[in-house]
Hints:
Blueprint: E1 4-5, E2 8-9, H1 32-46, E3 61-64, H2 69-96, H3 100-123, H4 130-139, H5 141-160, H6 170-192, E4 196-201, E5 215-216, E6 226-232, E7 237-245, E8 248-256, E9 262-263, H7 276-281, H8 288-296
Antiparallel strand pairs: 1-2, 3-4, 4-8, 5-6, 6-7, 7-8, 8-9
Amino acid sequence: xxxxxxxxxxxxxxxxxxxxxxxxxxxxxxxxxxxxxxxxxxxxxxxxxxxxxxxxxxxxxxxxxxxxxxxxxxxxxxxxxxxxxxxxxxxxxxxxxxxxxxxxxxxxxxxxxxxxxxxxxxxxxxxxxxxxxxxxxxxxxxxxxxxxxxxxxxxxxxxxxxxxxxxxxxxxxxxxxxxxxxxxxxxxxxxxxxxxxxxxxxxxxxxxxxxxxxxxxxxxxxxxxxxxxxxxxxxxxxxxxxxxxxxxxxxxxxxxxxxxxxxxxxxxxxxxxxxxxxxxxxxxxxxxxxxxxxxxxxxxxxxxxxxxxxxxxxxxxxxxxxxxx
Length: 325
């Protein structure tokens, strides 16, 4: 097995695997020539929209995070199947003797399955944003309203012992579909946007002197693993944290969007995210322009005195261009 550094093969610590940015190769088509071509294609795609950070970010390097949208597609399909089966039970339960709670439970499981999958996908990333994603989601007005309506409906149906033939049961279908659309849209935005952490190797014996605009998250001024401080922004915040990899101490900068997920602030404006109409409807659109403008006015030079040389093992591997026939 190839040597791993920070959970990644050597040579891919910063840029990741080029194969993350291309469709999976079918097993019967997998050979050395195809792999070389797909690696070259993926290498071009992952850097196609890279922007340049301001001069005060000198010394910081981008660590790309694995896109998770492909891993999200199959669970979305399964959750739709749960909704369809639940709807069939709600339509025909009174004729077959089934309790309407069977269909209701299946319909309610649809958005719940999306939540579980989103948590697992975010936890598998190098960025610890799963907790932030769900805390932010629970504070959203749309999500709070839908959850409240669902809970009130469940209590009403349970307490009132509503007859299975009553059309009231379809209220669960309506609210669950809206909840499913909300979670699917939110996850699609987070898993599709280009995401990166920005790293800088540092001397962890030196103290960190935070400007007044930053909010400290620890009671000391020393380097430590974990979150150290936050800088509130117009949408979301910039998180400063510490991480130790292969014996080297790093400072880490991550932009956490208003959706609670990590996004690269220094990426071009041409990103095309899915479900744009629903994102606008649910007020989930991520506009990086004001964030980019605001961050360019933030001076990060207060951390320069801590910087040390980059370790040799962090050098990215060279992606070889396939020969033309």
